[in-house]
């Protein structure tokens, strides 16, 4: 049966108990990172307390921004959700996430993403599966070995190169959907030490300008089980992508396996032998709107998308989203405006998440029972909400 809990933002005095709760939930190492017990800018920690004042649940609102067709959309990405074993199944997580969504709404967030350990509870609270962060293994020897391109320079990166690396990431990511901007206080906090990510960074330059990079971790050994883990490999030209792939392929004699997260359809992936990839890991991610009107108005929209559609939305956790709305899209922008009455298209908030993230078409959403229409009405009209293509995440949080 549900238990009475009080949800509030955690204070410095609560952080030790929150760390222990997370350590037991996720099987973390007992060694605590310094940031776990200090205030961190760019995030809000929530805790649920029972009548005795004991912390029985925690969750974190990460103040990210996500790119959506060229515009940064404020997000409340969720991490670190944990509930004490004695309090599970008693409404604790629902109470925390209700408070988190309300706080995120008040601070101006528009959308939310999370990586679930189990999807069903989050579906009950309005998130829906929108994509998968895939990590694959490739035989390093199968990577094509191109001849060096004369006008390109390859060199090892230094901490002084990190701003250029961040700028190239933005050039690749900003016109996609869902990817983090990696801007803001939270990213600034963790980047303050200026250290290179992983073991090394390989840069590709053209006339002094960065056109490609790979960040990697060497791992251990040089036998048959040795793995080179590429945290990220991005390029803005086909020549730079070929150069990066050639450098990664040069590890074949000492690291027979290359492990990376491919970015769908980017310059580097088009040169990888993905037909030989073996899946190493899959991390499902889920999406939902925090505020549907902001989610629509804040993002960019394809210039060719145009139209109007009315729908009624049901959102049990965020009542400010519930109601009947008119979506108008034109000239690369869109807005939702409230209208009266009940529309012929009735959409569950999970269906909204699927459409907005480009994870499903309206007819599929209807077949899933997340969109209902009056007799004779074409549900495909709501495909307008999904204009812009599927979303993808490249960061795990």
Automatic annotation (TrEMBL):
Organism of provenance: Micromonospora luteifusca
Domain of life per record: Bacteria
UniProt xrefs under SUPFAM superfamilies: Acyl-CoA N-acyltransferases (Nat) (SSF55729), SCP-like (SSF55718)
Species classification: Bacteria, Bacillati, Actinomycetota, Actinomycetes, Micromonosporales
Stretches assigned to the N-acetyltransferase domain: 5-149
PANTHER family linked to this entry: N-ACETYLTRANSFERASE EIS
InterPro entries, per database record: Acetyltransferase_Eis (IPR051554), Acyl_CoA_acyltransferase (IPR016181), Eis_dom (IPR025559), GNAT_dom (IPR000182), SCP2_sterol-bd_dom_sf (IPR036527)
Protein name in the entry: Acetyltransferase
